[in-house]
Amino acid sequence: MATIPQFKQRQIARRSTSDIDRLAKQYKASVDAMTGQYQTAFTGYQAGVAEKMKPYEAQMATYKESLLPTYESQQALYKQKLDDYNKVLAGIAADPVTRNIDKPGAVEDRPIAGSIRVTPVEYTYTAKPIPKFTDKAPVAPPIPVSPTVEPFDSTQFEAKKGVAEGEFKREIGERRAAKLGVVSRRGARPLLSGAQA
Question: Does pTM surpass 0.90?
Answer without folding.
Answer: no
